[in-house]
Design goal:
alpha/beta; 8-stranded mixed sheet; Rossmann fold
Length: 429
């Protein structure tokens, strides 16, 4: 397969052109013939015009790419190496939503031929690729894995907003349904990943490795969040404690905060779902999720408490929230826990203005039901730095004082302005 792709006698198809699939298609397009497929007609129109709507990649990389962008499934039939990179979120009950994965698999199955490869990059629970996706591929195509086509899994490691750890310089985990497929898949990915690949012993191992990466981070952040709640009751600053503890050689530094997004705030639920299916209750993982999911409400509660302690009338209080994306310096608002914070404050009848230099107002309103304020026109009783975008971090205390009412509370969730705020009533996790 590698040689036929290298000689451009075969094509790669990337199904799903989000923050994972699009960079992958662009990189593969530098060496191979690539078809980029997505069901989003508007997205494909923009990509054909050389515009990247999520701005993680510069428009020039889209315009200069040789990738053929399409919504036409018939054009996938000429491809031989399929990479599925569609979203795998959870529903409102924290249950894995595999609808897009199933639909993408059915699309690939309708085009599958003898000798083809199907690789999954979407985050799933261990066993999902072979238990859910493989039966769809075999039943719809009438072909059998390893006899007629090959199967593989290579978990994505894209970190939005991170210009250092990119697709090319982060080791890629690869796996295959047999030794032959593992070798071919390894060669193909090695051609675009300069850091090299790690050959997992099985597809399940590769799936589990991805889940572990984010579950570990989730649990460590949950520990920091719980610690911050305890220390706050002692009137001890968490970041000062972390600074002191960090002087030990084997201390791993994590920080408290709001855990949202489409990875850390979601992936552990895939593992807990599978664990419960196997009749095991994953107490530690679920406890960590409970802590992290509650932090937006905790921050809102502390804001209310401090407003009352400052003698503020809640019905007249005005709050400014800086940032709505799920993390700093990205445009992505999916599963943003800042939205939970805003809605909790609104539930108390407070006037809340939200600003964000990165987020799209239409997307925010569609997803969360409130607008981004175009201009700041009020003097605020509380200013909450929720997402430390570079635009906010560059500000001075005087910039915030100019927006502040008497006895204004400055809530700095990530502790960015620790020891830099003296005029306002400062609080952080």
């Amino acid at each position: 397969m590698f040689l036929t792709l290298k000689n451009k006698e075969a094509q790669i198809a990337v199904i799903g052109l989000g923050y994972v699939g699009l960079p992958l298609a662009i990189e593969f397009g530098k060496l191979f013939r690539v078809v980029g497929f997505d069901v989003n007609t508007h997205l494909i129109t923009l990509l054909k015009e050389g515009i990247n709507p999520d701005t993680e990649l510069p428009d020039a990389s889209i315009a200069d790419s040789s990738v053929h962008f399409t919504t036409d499934t018939d054009q996938l039939k000429a491809c031989q190496f399929f990479i599925v990179a569609v979203p795998t979120p959870v529903d409102e009950h924290k249950v894995p939503d595999l609808s897009m994965l199933r639909a993408a698999t059915a699309t690939v199955a309708s085009c599958l031929k003898k000798g083809d490869y199907v690789i999954y990059e979407s985050t799933v629970y261990p066993g999902c690729t072979e238990e859910i996706c493989l039966p769809i591929l075999e039943e719809m195509s009438g072909l059998q894995v390893n006899t007629d086509f090959k199967l593989g899994y290579s978990p994505e490691r894209i970190n939005p907003g991170d210009e250092l750890h990119t697709l090319r310089n982060v080791i890629k985990i690869v796996s295959g349904s047999d030794k032959e497929s593992l070798e071919e898949i390894s060669q193909i990915y090695s051609s675009v990943v300069e850091a090299g690949v790690f050959r997992a012993s099985s597809i399940k191992v590769a799936e589990a490795a991805k889940i572990l990466e984010n579950t570990q981070r989730d649990l460590n952040i949950a520990l920091m969040n719980e610690l911050s709640i305890i220390l706050d009751r002692m009137q001890v600053n968490t970041y000062e404690v972390l600074e002191a503890a960090g002087t030990k050689w084997n201390f791993h530094k994590y920080s408290p905060g709001l855990v949202g997004g489409h990875c850390i705030g979601v992936d552990p639920y895939y593992l807990t779902y599978k664990a419960l299916e196997l009749d095991y209750e994953p107490t530690v993982i679920l406890s960590g999720r409970k802590v992290n999911d509650s932090m937006a409400y905790y921050v809102a509660k502390r804001c209310i408490q401090q407003l009352i302690a400052s003698g503020k009338n809640l019905t007249d209080s005005k709050i400014l929230v800086l940032g709505i994306t799920f993390k700093e310096n990205v445009h992505d608002i999916r599963n943003s826990k800042v939205a939970d914070l805003v809605n909790e404050l609104l539930s108390f009848g407070l006037h809340v203005d939200v600003t964000d230099p990165k987020a799209d107002d239409a997307e925010v309103f569609h997803e969360y039901g409130f607008h981004i304020s175009e201009s700041i026109e009020h003097v605020y009783d509380a200013i909450i730095l929720a997402v430390p975008h570079a635009e906010y971090v560059r500000k001075q205390e005087s910039d915030f004082v100019a927006l502040a009412a008497e006895n204004c509370i400055f809530i700095d969730i990530k502790g960015v302005f620790r020891n830099k705020i003296s005029t306002l009533n400062y609080w952080s996790l």
